[in-house]
Amino acid sequence: MEVHDHGLAADLEAMMKMTTKRRQSLRMLLAGAAALPLVGCGGGSSDSSTSSTSSGTASTGATSTPTTSTTTPTTGTTTTTTTTTTGSCTVIPEETGGPYPGDGTNSNSSGVVNVLTQTGVVRSDIRSSFNGMSGTAAGVPLTIRLHILNANASCGAAGNFAVYLWHCDREGRYSLYSSGVTNQNYLRGVQEADADGNVSFTTIFPGCYDGRMPHVHFEVYQSLAKAASASNRIKTSQFTFPMATLNEVYASTGYGTSATNLSRISYATDNIFSDGYSLQLATMSGNATDGYVATLTLAVAA
């Protein structure tokens, strides 16, 4: 392919000239062969782009995979967000696990950190530390309810899959990594989904730290047994919350810094959600006094 840099205007001019020459040639051809049938004239298929078929056709299993790249300032690496449409549901985008996964894939100041192999990690209430650590995260109560679908099984319920979920505390700190909470492992836990693909966590509403929209990380595994090793994860992603809910929560005691940080960020400027977040936006109910329930249906391909 020839590389040129003379601009769009020059390209358009050249295209117009080519079109004019083609029309002139066509007039000459018609004048000399008027008796010939005009088959394929007037913008034939050979000159036009082939029409694309609808993606995600269930009968063929075809998939459409638009991909965009985003840069993650916290790690200095580039991550790829991939959304795949399969059957009648769309697979939730793959996202970075970030710098604080605690799943054995990186280290903190003391070495490799892996809660997946620790006693007590399988639990529904993740507000307190476990396995010999003490401490409980304070904040507005939040129940997270996930409904998992298997896009490779006609979008049926992904029964008995498992989820490892983690997020920051009210102050925006991640247990095991952030200053002041390296001796805590709260706000991390694993749960097995029921036969209908439902899994629930009891936690607190995460804070907003500078540079990111508030979010929750999670990994999906095909079984509870496989959740003991991050190498078995079939999906890593994140979800976020509606702005109206964030404004309500961050008006509560203890979330003052989160309110300030939120004022400096948006979905459009967030390095994860800027390319779209419709599949990663939880549905909310409740209030800041009694607590909230965040519900999200997510599809994975397994």
Q: Could you walk me through the main structural features you see in this protein, from its secondary elements to its overall organization?
A:
With 302 residues, the chain is α+β, with helices and mostly antiparallel strands. The protein has three helices and 15 strands. It is globular, with a radius of gyration of 26 Å. The model is unreliable at 1-80 (pLDDT under 50).
* Annotation field: number of helices: 3
Provide the β-strand percentage band.
25-35%
Straight-line distance between termini: 39 Å
Q: How is the biggest beta sheet arranged?
A: 5 strands, mixed
Approximate helicity band: 10-25%
- Secondary structure category: alpha+beta
The strand count comes to 15
The backbone outline, from C-alpha atoms, is globular
Radius of gyration: 26 Å
